[in-house]
Design goal:
Number of domains: 1
Number of helices: 3
InterPro entries: MBL_Glyoxalase_II, Metallo-B-lactamas, RibonucZ/Hydroxyglut_hydro
CATH superfamily: Ribonuclease Z/Hydroxyacylglutathione hydrolase-like
CATH class: Alpha Beta
Strand order of the largest sheet: 1-2-3-4-5
Number of strands: 5
Order of helices and strands: EEEHEHHE
Pfam families: Lactamase_B (PF00753)
Helix content: 25-40%
Distance between the termini: 25 Å
Protein name: Metallo-beta-lactamase
Mean pLDDT: 97
CATH architecture: 4-Layer Sandwich
Keywords: Hydrolase, Metal-binding, Zinc
Strand content: 35-45%
Shape: globular
Low-confidence stretches: none
Structural class: alpha/beta
CATH topology: Metallo-beta-lactamase, Chain A
Cofactor: Zn(2+)
Length: about 80
């Protein structure tokens, strides 16, 4: 079992959003989904990751801007 991750630059600020998951269970989290939520949702689907939480490190817009829309696209994923 290994922890996998992919860093994805989002928004015009190119803020780093991270998708982190277990390669065995394929369950994971998304850290700081600042925007570009449709592209993030497509990548998550391509990777086959079952996102169980959206994690925010702090409240700046470039880190939280896409959180609620991404949660909705993923079926109501919990935000922490």
């Amino acid at each position: 079992m290994a922890l996998k991750y992919q860093v994805v630059p989002v928004t015009s600020f190119s803020q780093n959003c991270s998708i982190v998951w277990c390669d065995e269970t394929m369950k994971g989290i998304v850290v700081d989904p600042g925007g570009d939520e449709k592209q993030l949702a497509m990548l998550i689907k391509e990777l086959g990751v079952d996102v169980v939480k959206l994690v925010l490190t702090h409240g700046h817009l470039d880190h939280v801007g896409g959180t609620e829309p991404l949660s909705a696209l993923l079926g109501g994923t919990e935000i922490v």
